[in-house]
Design goal:
The protein is 48% helix and 12% strand. It has 14 helices and 7 strands. A hairpin with a 2-residue loop joins strand 6 and strand 7. Helix 5 runs antiparallel to helix 8, helix 10 crosses helix 11 and helix 12 packs across helix 14. It is globular and about 50 Å long. It binds a DNA duplex through helix 5, helix 6, helix 11 and helix 12.
Length: 282
Amino acid sequence: MKYKLTNIKDFNLDHIFDCGQCFRWEKAEDGSYTGIVGSQIANVQFESGDLIITTTAEEECRSFWHDYLDLERSYGEIKKNLVKRDPVISQSINHGHGIRILQQDPWETLISFIISQNSNIPRIKKCIQTLCENFGEQIGTYQGKTYFSFPAPEIIAELTVEDLAVCRLGYRAKYLIQTAKQVTGDGREKLQGMKHPDVSEEEAFSYINSFAGVGPKVANCVLLFSLGKYESFPVDVWVKKVMKELYGIENEKEIRTFAKETFGAYGGMAQQYLFYYMREKE
DNA sequence: TTCCAGGTACCCC
DNA sequence: GGGGTACATGGA
């Protein structure tokens, strides 16, 4: 299927796919991006306000893409609000003005960010790709390339550390297996259930934080990138750098307090603008 | 060689 | 509850 969505503002593919929230979208020479979401392969192009989505899905799923790309939310208002609360962030917002927080799958996000710990983005991408190629399902080809789904919890739960050695996950392999075992059964439904607006950020945090290999940083990424808890403010090495440089705050606890008080309900968006700014700056 | 990367678990006090 | 340290791996 092919969709054309018009008059889209505050939207930039490079900002969205290169701000560290996702690991499986690839840029093509024409500037479009191709990725896998669920069991469909999709290509997205964006030019002068028009968004063209080409997908292998046969059924109508326009509203799905609206949700996934977070098109219903007014990022213009959010950015205005953030600058009003804190003028210092405006340069970061200008730099990543087209960022949108994708509404990703909680299971894939959980595993991806367990893999991300103490690693770097190119290697994280490679690990995840190998994981999908070896243990996901082949879902089709697009422009000569074969694509694979993200392996289900039931698949990873049955693997051994030796099976996963091909992915070069290091000490994280055992976390994947343990977490997958926790998620199988009714766990998957509980994980999805955390998306519900009635589930508070605190409640979601303590649940996600209880998985093997998940600490505060990974938990906050899962909350922000897949559970719609937009006040979450993941603190990693890059955020520490930018907070020191722009605000003179080094202590992690102070960073959290500052973010909560300053950015409030949209701490997650603020974090993404700051993270992207600091990473591009190097 | 050493350092570092979207950190966490575990131990000690 | 804060403060060290080991942990797999690959690129700079």
